[in-house]
Structures are given as C-alpha cells and as structure tokens.
What does this fold into?
Amino acid sequence: MRYENDQFIIYYNSNDVNIRYLIITLEQKSKDIMEFFELKRLSRKIVVKIYDSIHGYKEHLMPLLEQNGNTYHEWMIGDTLDDNINILALKECHKLESHKNHTLEDQAKSILHEFVHICHHESLGENNSHGHIWFSEALATNLSGQDYSGTSITCTYEELKSNFPNASNKYATAFLMGKYMLENYERSFILNLIHNWQLLNEFAPELFEKTKAYYSKKTK
It folds into this structure.
C-alpha cells in the first residue's frame, strides 16, 4: 500500500494496523524537527518504507552496509543509507531479542530518528561528511524523543569520535551529550556546530568532559 502527502510517500503492508498512528505522528512531529533545523521545506518528498519481514529488510540493508565497510547487526531496524527512511515493521521487531519489548511509540520514534538524519543532511547540503557520527546520533536521539537516561558513559571521546560503531555504550553517550548540549547551549550555537566543523572539532572534547562530569555527579 502507498500513502502520500505533500512531504512523504509511505509504503506499507495493508495488514499493518499501526499505520494510521505512524502517519499522524510523523506528520505532526516532523514539523518540530524541521523547525529546529530552520528548514521551511525539504528539497524532495521523503520516502518511508516499512518492511514487513526481517529477511526483506536484511536484503535491502546488507549490500549498503558492505559498500561502507560495515556489517549487519541484529539490533539494526532502521536506516537512511539509500536516502530513504527504511524501518522494520513492529511485529518483526518483536522477533528480535534486542527489540522484543519495542512499542508502537518506539517504532514512531525510530522513524523520527531517521527523519532527523534526513533533515541534518539536508541542512548540510552536499558537503555532509563531517566525520562526527556521534553528533548526528546526539541530534537524532534527542529530537526524535528517544531516551537513554539512566545509562553511563563508558568510552573515551577518542573512541566515540574515531570508532563510533565499536565504542562502548555509543548511543547512550551520544544521547547524553546531545541532551546536555540542548539544555545548556543556544540553538543558534548548535546550528553553527552543524555547519562549522572546525568549531565542532574544538567544542566536542569539552562537551564530552562536561557531560561525563555532570551525569557522573547526577548518578551519585
């Protein structure tokens, strides 16, 4: 099945009982995300594909991962590697040990997470390879409403910056850095970080240390 409006084209299985909730949530929340990036409109309609089988999603994902020198992991349920938003259907997520407790709200946030990546890339334009994966994930986790609170930072900044896929507690660390940044710095400064990579390079180690100190003290 296909749903289309002025901003999205959504492909889904006709048996997906969750589609109305997902469509309404995406239409409502996407406006706030675009406003954060100061995007009045996107350059194209965003395609959202909801995969109705783990096998089908893996067939899509694995060749794209291999092109980038990466490997498939069981926890992978969403991506924008082909510039579309690709998400595994909720009933299929429940077959995975890592997502067996995934809720409908979690799935909606996963779609919004990928939409943040789309807006981030759109904001950057063609020159979008800044090498700070953690920064992209810091924005995506926070702006989508995902929450990794209650976790701790267990990696170094160098591990996070240079080897994000293998860094310990990487998404939680990115989330905490993003949360601290959004709560303590003006949006204009954060938007400047998006476009000024030298500033981001200089600021990131300081942000990491401030975040680690703040949440270490908070958990104690």
Notes: The mean pLDDT is 94.
